[in-house]
Amino acid sequence: MTLIVLNFKTYQESTGKEALRLASICRDVSEEYSIKIIVVPQVADIYAIANSVNISVFAQHVDGAGQGGFTGHITAASLKAAGAVGSIINHSEKRLMLAEIDASLSACRIVGLDTIICTNNIATTRAAAVLKPRYVAIEPPELIGSGIPVSKADPEVVRGAVDIVKKIEPSVSVLCGAGITHGEDLKAALELGSEGVLLASGIIKAKNQRAALDDLVSCI
Ligand code: G3P
């Protein structure tokens, strides 16, 4: 099933009450078109969304720290308790060292959170697949926020990521992101072999977020 992962990032239009409103729009579109949508709000908004909107919620980041003396860390246990069902790890805007990625992944496994490891090219996608997350999401950083869809600007990086993951770890699903905005961008991403997209500004910064989501799912 095609997956849409909407990263709320830290935009004003997707924070607090706006995050709750946007999550409800995502739930409505998910139900109307029978398409899987995961929302990824800031950690402070996870509990409210997860406990009032019928939609899957991921965190934008998770630390490998366990429970105890780890002030300021985001633990997998706290995300699970808040109602999250997964977390992004290593987003280009929150890059981690390899050992930290492994620790975050292990912490999520212990509590049963799904994981999306973000990568920036085929080499890092190969490395991420070996760690066996649920998903890898390839996102060339230079296209993030550009409105230039990766599925058109650099189809080879998407196709190459899909091929290497299927060779190394067929159990891992490949998403792609950066600049994805319209239905044809999602369609192109699926035709390149990805199982869905990770996106943000094309929806969040749209004048009409509902209309932007309708457009995104219009070609599938
Ligand atoms: O996490 C997805 C994000 O990095 C893509 O950003 O604004 O290009 O959709 P955007």
Structure description:
It contains ten helices and eight strands. Helix 1 packs parallel to helix 10 and helix 5 runs parallel beside helix 7. Strands 1-2-3-4-5-6-7-8 form an eight-stranded parallel β-barrel, surrounded by seven helices. Helix 4 links the parallel strand 4 and strand 5. It has 220 residues and is of the alpha/beta class. The chain is globular, with a radius of gyration of 16 Å. It has one domain: TIM Barrel, CATH 3.20.20.70. The site of SN-glycerol-3-phosphate has 14 residues, from strand 8 and helix 9. The site of SN-glycerol-3-phosphate (G3P) has 14 residues, from strand 8 and helix 9.
Say how many strands there are.
8
Relative helix content:
40-55%
Which small-molecule ligands are present, each listed once? SN-glycerol-3-phosphate
Number of domains: 1
Structural class, please? Answer: alpha/beta
- End-to-end C-alpha gap: 11 Å
Main beta sheet, described?
A: 8 strands, parallel, barrel
- The CATH superfamily is known as Aldolase class I
Q: Give the SSE order as H and E letters.
A: EHEHEHEHEHEHHEHEHH
Tell me the Rg in angstroms: 16 Å
Name of the top-level CATH class: Alpha Beta
Present the secondary structure layout.
Layout: E1 3-7, H1 17-33, E2 36-40, H2 43-50, E3 56-59, H3 76-82, E4 86-89, H4 98-111, E5 114-119, H5 122-130, E6 135-138, H6 150-153, H7 155-168, E7 173-177, H8 183-191, E8 196-199, H9 201-204, H10 209-216
Parallel strand pairs: 1-2, 1-8, 2-3, 3-4, 4-5, 5-6, 6-7, 7-8
Helix pairs in contact: 1-10, 5-7
